[in-house]
Amino acid sequence: MESAKRRNNGLQHIAMREGDELVDRHPQKRLHINLDERKLSILVQSLFSSWMLALLFEGQVLYSLAYAYKIAPVVMVFSGIAAHFAGLLFCGFFIKTRKAARKLFLCSFPFCIAISVIFFLPPNVFWTVGIIVGSFLAGSCVAAWGYYLKSSTPKSERIKTVADMLILANILMILLNTAAIHISPHVGLSLSMLMLLGAFLCALQLPAGRAADAFVSSGHKEKPISITGLLAFLCLFIVVITINSGLMYQVVAPDFAHIEWLTSWYFALPYIAALFVMRNLPRRMNRTYILYVAIAMIGLSFIGFMSLGRGVVSYLAVNTLMLGAFGVYDLFWWSILGEMLELHKNPAKILGIGLAANVLGVLLGGLIGNAVTSSNIHSPNPTLLALFVVCVTLVLLPPLHMRLSSLLTGHAYLTVFSEMPTREQTDEVGRAARFKNLSERERQVASLLLQGKTYRTIADELTISENTVKYYVKNIYSKFGIQSRTELIHIMLKKDDAASTE
Fold first, then answer.
1. CA geometry: angle 217, 401, 45, nearest 5 deg
2. Dihedral of CA 353/164/269/304: which sign?
3. Which end of the chain has the least Cβ crowding within 10 Å, N or C?
C-alpha cells in the first residue's frame, strides 16, 4: 500500500540535502553496502569478544584457572576492567582511519594469543601484566570496530548488526565457559585461543582501504550538529544503570556458585533471548516502553535476590529478570551509539567513549559489591543500592529519550514521526500549522517535506515550480524559527511527546 511505503521511506531519506538535487532516490546504489564485509565484521568482533568475555572481563576461564591454583583473582579482575576502560576511552585518539583499525586488529590478535599462553604457566606476575595489556588492547579493538560497523551497515540496520554480534559472542562465551568449568580450565583456554585465531583469519579478509562516508551526502548544507552534550548525558545514564551489572558480578553471582552445573550455561541465555527478541521486534513497535519494563525487571531481580533463597528456582527467577534486562539495555546503547557514528568523523571515539561508560559502571558496581562482601556485612545494602540506582535511572530516562528523539529520529528505540500513518502525520502538521499560522499551501508543503519528498517531487505533486517550493519552505522555516528539515521533525516529535503526556 502507498501509505506503508510512505511510512517506511518517510524520514529515512530526510535532511540529507536542503537543495534541489535528489540525494537519495536510489540509496542502494549510493551506499554500496558490502554484505560480506558486514558478516566478516560480525565474525571478527564476535570471535574476539568471546575470548575477551571468557578470559579477561571477569571470565569463567580466568576464574577456573585461579581456583585451580587456589588464588584470588580479584586484583587481576579489577585491573583488567580498568585497563579495558582505558583502551575504550583512548582508542579514538590514535586510531583515526579504517585502515588503522584493521592494522590494530592484525597486530593485537596474535599478541593476545601470545598473552593467553602465559596462563598455561603457574601463577606469576606475568598473569597480571597479561590481563592489563590484553584488556587495554581488547578495549581498543572493540572501539576500533566502530569503523566497520559504520562502513558495513546503514544506520537503520545497525541495531541488527550489533544484536547479531552480541548474540554470537555470548553463545561462543557459553561454550568456552562450559568447557573451562566442566572439562578443564586449560581446555577452555585453548578453545578461547582458537577463537582469537579465527578472529585474526577473518580480519585478514576485511577491506583495508579508507571507507568513503557513504551515509552522508556531500551536498548536505545543514549546520554540523554538536553531540557532546547528548553523548555526555547518555554516558551518565549508562554509568548509572550498569552499576547494577558490577553488583551482580560481585554480590549476586557468588551466592549461586554451589549450583555451578546450572550457572555455567544458563547465565547468559536470558541475555541472548532478550537480544533476539529486541532485534526482531517490528519497527513500528515503540521500544521505549520496554526500557521501563527492563528497569522494573532489574528492581524485581534484586528484590527476589534479597527475599528468596539460594536454590535453583530462585536463581532462575533472579538471573532471568536481571540478564534479560541487561540484554535490553545493552542493545539500546550499542545501537544508539551505532547511529551516532554518523555524527562524528571518528567512529572509534564515539563507540569507545560510550562503551567506556558501560565498563566504568561495571567497575564502580564491582568495587562497591566487593567492598560490601569483603567486610562480611550480611545486610541488604547492595540490594538497597541497586534499587536506588533503579530509581535514579527512572529519573534520567525521560529527558534522555527526549534528547535522543530530537537527534536520532529514525532509531528503533525512539518515538519516530515517520512511523506514523500518513493521515496522523498530516494531522500533526495541521495542528502545528494553526499554531504558526501556516497557509494551506505551506501546510501541504510541510507535510510532503516530512514524508521525505524532494523539492522536485513536491513540485510535481502540487503542480508548482521548484522555485515556488523553495519559497514556501523558506517561509515555513522562518515561521518556525528553524533552518532545516531535521529541526522540523524535532518540532513534530516534541508535539507528539507533549500530547502523549497530557
1. 60
2. positive
3. C
